[in-house]
Write a structure and sequence with these properties.
- The structure holds two protein chains of two kinds.
- Helices cover 64% and strands 2% of the residues of chain A.
- Chain A is mainly α.
- Chain A has a domain of 245 residues.
- A two-stranded antiparallel sheet of chain A has the order 1-2.
- The longest helix of chain A has 35 residues.
- Chain A is globular, with a radius of gyration of 23 Å.
- In chain B, the strands form three sheets. Chain B has a three-stranded antiparallel sheet with strand order 5-7-6. A two-stranded antiparallel ribbon of chain B has the order 1-2.
- In chain B, strand 1 and strand 2 form a beta hairpin.
- Chain B folds into two domains: 35 residues; 157 residues, no CATH class.
- In chain B, 49% of the residues are buried.
- Classes of the chains: A mainly alpha, B alpha+beta.
- Chains A and B meet through helix 1, helix 2, helix 3, helix 5 and helix 6 of A and helix 1, strand 2, helix 3, strand 5 and helix 6 of B.
Amino acid sequence: MTIIGWIQIALYCVIVVALVKPLGWYMTRVFTGEWTPLSPVLRPVEAGLYWLGGVDPKREQHWLTYTVAMLLFHVGGFLILYGVLRLQAMLPFNPQEQSAVAPDLSFNTAISFLTNTNWQNYGGESTLSYLSQMLGLTHQNFLSAATGIALAVALIRGFARSSMRTIGNFWVDVTRCTLYVLLPICIVYALFLVSQGMPQTLSAYVDATTLEGAKQSIAVGPVASQVAIKMLGTNGGGFFNANASHPFENPTALSNFVQMLSIFALGAGLTNVFGRMVGNQRQGWAILGVMGVLFIAGVAITYWAEANGTTGLNALGLAGGNMEGKEVRFGIVASSLFAVITTAASCGAVNAMHDSFTALGGMIPLINMQLGEIIVGGVGAGLYGMLLFVVLAIFVAGLMVGRTPEYVGKKIEAREVKMAMLAILVLPLMYLGWTAVAVVLPQAVASIANPGPHGFSEVLYAFTSATGNNGSAFGGLTGNTLFYNLTLATSMFVGRFFMIVPAMALAGSLAAKKSIPASAGTLPTTGGLFIGLVVGVILIIGGLTFFPALALGPIVEHLAMTANTLF
Amino acid sequence: MLKEIRPAIVLLLALTLLTGLAYPLAMTALAGVIFPKQAQGSLIEKDGQVIGSALIGQQFTEDKYFHGRPSATTAADPEDSSKTVSAPYNAVNSAGSNLGPTNKVLIDRVTADVDRLKAENPSAPVPVDLVTTSASGLDPDISPEAALFQVPRVAKARGLSEQRLQQLVRDHSQGRLAGLLGEPRVNVLALNLALDAAK
């Protein structure tokens, strides 16, 4: 670990915090329908879309209608993406003449992008046409991100409102999010990425003759437009197989730094939207504080583990940390930081190969995902995931002092706690359950690349990443098999929708409640005590759930590594 | 609920066309005008022929060139398309080795590389980036130490003085951005092009 490394990490945190208020201000105005600097241009477009779709932007929806609208939107999105992948051979923008994507891989990829997971069983440059990348993936990157943010805003309305039956209008939220938030940022962002060296072209791959006279075919494509939304929307599905480690998908140290910022920007800004909408910005800062504590701890451990290197490399006299699977321009610190950010948020883009991380360095990304990606989290998804934990923490605190728990003026009662528990329990059921199945089925075991405990980690990581809608991988595992395509798709689906539906039910039941003023008996939810309480509940629930599985994978591997045991 | 079906279809199609076609195509047009070179992949031409991209590493094996990092990319086996064979710096199939820290295959490979490099230059410690594969398999850079480590071999093959090559490496080393972001590095292709020009 170096001083300059820590300065890079500190600089990152400072800029993220500085972005929170401006983004929170802007997004709050967007979602409450107030005037924004972009309104003169976008209002007519927005109105045109509502007119076409027959949407009355003033008419709000009950939580059930809101959820059904969201699900219908997803069914359509799935059909488009699946169709484009299956038919890409016959469609335009296919200079490399890629053939149709196989049915199970198309199914997996469609579910994967629909759920904001972006698990890459597909190979990017070796599998997909430019049309599939644009009309299939880029578009779904936008829509799954917009949906996540819309749902978080709906849940915030649940907390902020008093005695109301409605939680907003899904169509309005999605349209506004896409037009006012995602598209404008992406246009500027994509141009910046091109300036750094990211290709943006529809030309076919380039054939080069290298200095030594060999032939090298170089994949290019409309990369920048996709990468902008991939990062901003915490989607993470790469244009190229190697994702953000590919020099075309992350050309410079600056592009890397801005990509890391863009993963956290909207998610962190949403905590401020929460604070503003419930009428006290300090409520939002407290939530961000909980996320910050967990984040810094994770960064410190991964950076330490990677900088120390592995026993095997050190024994050969190689100094400089574990550089296997990392790029020189990023080095140890930017690779470690990126890995923690991408799994804290549910992004899943990678600028280094997590499979080649040290046991403990790779365990932190795994833990981040198993905690439910609530450390800033996916755009929207992170906030509603965190609010579920807050509900539980408040409930636990209420039990300790024997009072009805309340949060931002809402009584937390049996229904809320049940919904929160349902959402939180379904995640381990998926990733632990499928991992158990996969390690006993011979055809699943055959996909494992690394022997010993690391192989177990690969399988656990795959199902955790899918369930958490992250999409990063211990990439050695051969995921493009019938078994994994189907089971991972199931995990992604359940991990997304069995979290969303309870969260929306919670939003509906909270919105219907009366707001009660804070009294002397109310637990203050803006201070250090509250932050400590929520961090504690997250670690206890998380720890009890997945520690046994971690012990079989990364922990035993770390012990083996220190004893210099190879497999 | 049924009245949600019309917006579901109409808005989905409209937003799909907007974000899936209009946006990427408009960005392609804009980028092509503002940053034409980068948008095409930062290609390098020599005598009218594309010799590669400034951002994509390529394989060097001859003694007279500086070598990049080991690459784990593969290609389909020409004899049996269900299998893959090693194809370093295959820029249409980026990939890392994905070998874990306790995998014997990894340690054996690194050990062999270290032994080979030690024989080539016994006077300096082996830089770690020269014996580990990159994440993309297309890393265009090596650390300045890794370039300096190769100077004796290249000097011998070219009949140039070591001091001159060390100067060349230093001239082509890039520092951290603003002294802060990223890591010091040398672009191998740019260095080798300069080397050819330095005759």
